[in-house]
């Protein structure tokens, strides 16, 4: 059991260090390119956590068709950015 706990601890440390390195490198890149923060992560999370749609709402959100259309994807807030 101790080996599992130790491996879990090392995995958490590695994940934390990797996240910090990626965040710092992204901040440095943004300083040079003057790029704004991305909102894609928040938009995808909002889409995934949205409650299930009723049939009529789903049809209207998908542009009136069962599968949607390219134009409905172009209007999708989470698809841009």
Chain-averaged pLDDT: 75
Question: Mind summarizing the main beta sheet?
Answer: none
Cα separation of the termini: 45 Å
Q: Radius of gyration, Cα only, in angstroms?
A: 20 Å
Query: Helical segment tally?
Result: 4
| SS-based class | mainly alpha
**Secondary-structure element order, N to C:** HHHH
| Shape annotation | flat
User: pLDDT below 50 for ≥5 consecutive residues: which ranges?
Assistant: 64-75
Overall tally of domains: 1
Helix content: 55-70%
Estimated share of beta-strand residues? under 5%
Number of strands: 0
Structure notes:
By secondary structure, the protein is mainly α. The protein has one domain. The chain contains four helices and no strands. It is flat, with a radius of gyration of 20 Å. The termini are far apart. About 15% of the residues have low confidence.
Tell me briefly what this model is.
The chain contains four helices and no strands. It is an all-alpha fold and 81 residues long.
Tell me the layout of helices and strands.
Elements (H helix, E strand, L loop, with lengths): L1 H32 L6 H10 L5 H7 L8 H6 L6
Feature tags:
single chain, 81 residues, mainly alpha, 68% helix
